[in-house]
Amino acid sequence: MKNILTYGTYDLFHIGHVKLFKRLKAMGDNLIVGVSTDHFNKLKDKHSIFSYEERAGIVKACRYVDLVIPENNWEQKKNDIEKYNITTFAMGDDWQGRFDHLKAQCEVIYLPRTENISSTDVKQNILSISQLELDSLKIKIDESIRIIESLQDSLK
Ligand code: C2G
Predict the structure, then answer these.
(1) What is the C-alpha to C-alpha distance for residues 74 and 87, in angstroms, rounded to an integer?
(2) Which residue from 28, 34, 55, 126 could staple onto 71, CB 3.0 to 4.6 Å apart?
(3) How many CA atoms lie within 13 A of 102 on its CB side?
């Protein structure tokens, strides 16, 4: 049995995460995913929109994922590799080389990230849409004020 292991925050779950899991699942029999807890996110200086429970639940619902475990710290990877009899540890290539020390225990690979999508991009897009909506609302409010003022003038 080939067991594959990867870790991440997986906030605002998107196609980049799905494509990673799909590629990893195709490499073996079981895909085990460590989802960063809210506490560990703080250590990574990452601020998630969704809680650990929500992020883990979404990852668990992904058809390519067989088991979800909590990622509490940087150090647990070595134990997880032993505990789950991992054949291959994999990350996106934004982590290129960062986990080569695990090569003593299992295969370590880094896969190309899916381009033009990230949780940060999604957040930025939502923020910019909200800003556009706020701007258009402000224009409408200003227009309404002008109408009210002109009505008031006409009543004098
Ligand atoms: N990813 C990807 N393509 C994207 C975005 C992300 O392949 N467009 C991959 C990343 O390379 C990573 C995984 O999806 O392997 C999860 O990414 P994040 O949720 O951003 O997780 P990260 O903050 O990188 O945490 O101990 C490892 C850390 O927990 C990884």
Answers:
(1) 19
(2) 34
(3) 26
CATH architecture, domain 3-111 = 3-Layer(aba) Sandwich (3.40)
Using CB distances shorter than 6 Å, the residues near ligand 1 are: 7-10, 16-17, 20, 36, 44, 46, 71, 91-92, 94, 113-114, 117-118
Q: At 89, is the secondary structure helix, strand, or coil? A: strand
Catalytic residue status for 22: no
Residues of the chain with pLDDT under 50: none
What per-residue confidence (pLDDT) applies to 138? 97
pLDDT, position 82:
98
Q: Which residues are registered as beta bridge partners of 108?
A: 89
Q: Would you state the pLDDT for residue 72?
A: 98
For the chain, what are the domain ranges? 3-111, 118-156
Q: Distance, CA 129 to ligand 1 centroid (Å)?
A: 25
Mutate to test the pocket of ligand 1, among 4, 5, 6, 7 (most ligand atoms within 8 A of CB): 7
